[in-house]
Amino acid sequence: MSKCAFVFPGQGSQQVGMLQSLWGELPEVAQTFAESSEVLGYDLWQLVSDGPQEQLNLTEQAQPALLTSSIALWRAWCARSHYRPNYMAGHSLGEWSALVAAGVVEFAEAVKLVQLRGRYMQAAVPPGVGAMAAILGLEDAKVELACTQASEQGVVVPVNFNSPGQVVIAGEIPAVEAAMAGATELGASRAVLLPVSAPFHTIMMKPAAERLAADLETVEFFAPKVPVVHNLTARPEADPARIKALMIEQIYAPVRWVESVQFMVEQGVDTTLEVGPGRVLSGLNKRIHKGLTNLATDDLARWQAALAQFQL
Questions:
Q1: Which residue would you say has higher pLDDT here, 38 or 12?
Q2: Residues noted as catalytic
Q3: Into which CATH architecture does domain 3-124+203-309 fall?
């Protein structure tokens, strides 16, 4: 069989109504959401089912919702298929889902940690100070140049290298706006402000990382059962202490998704399965390497098709 990577989506993939078609078919969905709700102290499935979307989009609620959705599907997969991936990777928050699936950290522990992670990230920068924007149709080097030129206005850096021609920048609002204008002058097809209020993956998130580091001191990490390719290094890491350090630094460092996917392709991966809501990563992966087969699990039809593909 060909090599496969299971990939886990990050913030932005949450939608009211996600996993609805799978709820009645996969008992693991109800079980996993019940576990998560007990940890969080509120009914997470009700929020995911009924919204409102603005509430679900809040960082400290979106992150547990996405983690729980991905792990529910991972558990359902493990109950129905003997197939296990050669690699795992997750985009930003999704890296926590990959770590849980790989056995590095317990699910209940991770739910609490990502709730705190989201809370700390939102609190690190006051509303109205930071912004993020997607720069489309421009080479990475020119995006970096636009940020450098705009840095007189404040902090602005590339933070998500998502696919060729799609880079997200973040920082202080005047600097982000200046970099958007500069990128357009350098030939970007579009520069679009994203509907988030905090400049994730910038040095402005360092206070959030420090707070999470304190929480992680009492949490045990284990060696991964499946290699997880990390956002920070675009490489796997076997040492639990080093993984913990990577997850702290990840909060204020860029997401190197293009390099992560390229690394897995170089190791022989020719198929990815997106474990979680939406198909954002499938779209990015297709643009990173045209030869990849990209499967999804976000509704019943796609779930059944993916499961059939890997029946041993």
A1: 38
A2: 92, 201
A3: 3-Layer(aba) Sandwich (3.40)
